[in-house]
């Protein structure tokens, strides 16, 4: 079992819709959770991080964490074609420097 | 401020040749990471430096790979001899690692360079 699992996609949504990206992790000791966005041919960039169970909102983005289910998700409201990218989920233990990445979900937003 | 700077951006070489990738982290950052990204394996951590000291090199695939950080503003990743299966995008990332009283470290945000795309023929 991979430490961080994501559906590779592509996830295709129409412009203006809500895109829901999901991630599960295996290590219950994981404490910090991150979503990175990576455009084709570019480097990953941080979108959001979340530590506590529940929702965290930042503009059109909402991160959701459920530690009991070992599940973290990213919702993108009012999806735009410019949101088309690969979204990488990453987790780490608080005491650790090591960020473990999932393989990413490719999102396509259709105009 | 300049971000993480990597060179070269693209490298095409023949099997058996030595390859050296370079990285300049963000000034003031004390942690440096080398990652490799392929379609098959995603982003893999190769090595982690903290305050210029290699802390974890367990991700380095073989003895053909070596990394150095002679000072806070420069790191190299060397592959000698290179093989076709080394073809990948190599990312350098830096961050500022701090510890709080509870044992919680900082956010863990990594700032990535643009990557070095390596093709070994």
Quick structural gist:
The complex is a heterodimer of chains A (111) and B (121). Chain A has 111 residues and is an all-beta fold.
Structural class by secondary-structure content of chain A: mainly beta
The biggest sheet of chain B, with number of strands, parallel, antiparallel or mixed sense and barrel status, is: 7 strands, mixed
Radius of gyration of chain A: 13 Å
Q: How would you sum up the global shape of chain B? A: globular
Q: H/E series of chain B, N to C? A: EEEEEEEEEEE
Strand content of chain B: over 45%
SSE succession of chain A: EEEEEEEEEEE
Indicate the radius of gyration of chain B in whole angstroms. Answer: 14 Å
Word description of this protein:
The complex is a heterodimer of chains A (111) and B (121). Helices cover 0% and strands 53% of the residues of chain A. Chain A has 111 residues and is an all-beta fold. In chain A, the strands form two sheets. In chain A, strands 2, 4, 5, 9, 10 and 11 form a six-stranded mixed sheet that branches. A five-stranded antiparallel sheet of chain A has the order 1-3-8-7-6, with no helix packed on it. With 121 residues, chain B is mostly beta strands. Chain B starts with a strand and ends with a strand. About 4% of the residues of chain B have low confidence. Classes of the chains: A mainly beta (111), B mainly beta (121). Chains A and B meet through strand 5 and strand 10 of A and strand 5 of B.
Kindly list the characteristics that best describe this protein.
heterodimer; A: 111 residues; mainly beta; six-stranded mixed β-sheet; globular; B: 121 residues; four-stranded antiparallel β-sheet; 11 strands
Secondary structure elements and pairings:
The complex is a heterodimer of chains A (111) and B (121).
Chain A (H helix, E strand, L loop, with lengths): L3 E2 L5 E4 L4 E7 L6 E7 L6 E6 L3 E5 L2 E6 L4 E6 L8 E8 L7 E2 L3 E6 L1
Parallel strand pairs in A: 2-11
Antiparallel strand pairs in A: 1-3, 3-8, 4-5, 4-9, 6-7, 7-8, 9-10, 9-11
Chain B lengths: L4 E3 L2 E4 L5 E6 L6 E8 L3 E9 L2 E4 L8 E7 L2 E6 L8 E8 L15 E2 L3 E5 L1
Parallel strand pairs in B: 2-11
Antiparallel strand pairs in B: 1-3, 3-8, 4-5, 4-9, 5-6, 7-8, 9-10, 9-11
């Amino acid at each position: 079992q991979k430490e961080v699992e994501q559906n590779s996609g592509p996830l295709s949504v129409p412009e203006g819709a809500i895109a829901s990206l999901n991630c599960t992790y295996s290590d219950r000791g994981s404490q910090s959770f991150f979503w990175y966005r990576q455009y084709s041919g570019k480097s990953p960039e941080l979108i959001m991080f979340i530590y506590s169970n529940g929702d965290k909102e930042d503009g059109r983005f909402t991160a959701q964490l459920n530690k009991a289910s070992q599940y973290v998700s990213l919702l993108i409201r009012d999806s735009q074609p410019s949101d088309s990218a690969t979204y990488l989920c990453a987790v780490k233990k608080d005491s650790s420097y090591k960020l473990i990445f999932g393989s990413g979900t490719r999102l396509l937003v259709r105009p | 401020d300049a971000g993480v700077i990597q060179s070269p951006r693209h490298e095409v070489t023949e099997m058996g040749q030595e390859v050296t990738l370079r990285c300049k982290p963000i000034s003031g950052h004390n942690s440096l990471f080398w990652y490799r990204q392929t379609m098959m394996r995603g982003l893999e951590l190769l090595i982690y430096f903290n305050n210029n000291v290699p802390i974890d090199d367990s991700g380095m695939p073989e003895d053909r790979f070596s990394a150095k950080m002679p000072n806070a503003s420069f790191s190299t990743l060397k592959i000698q001899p290179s093989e076709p299966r080394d073809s990948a995008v190599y990312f350098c990332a830096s961050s500022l690692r701090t510890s709080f009283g509870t044992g919680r470290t900082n956010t863990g945000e990594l700032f990535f360079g643009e990557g070095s795309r390596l093709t070994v023929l």
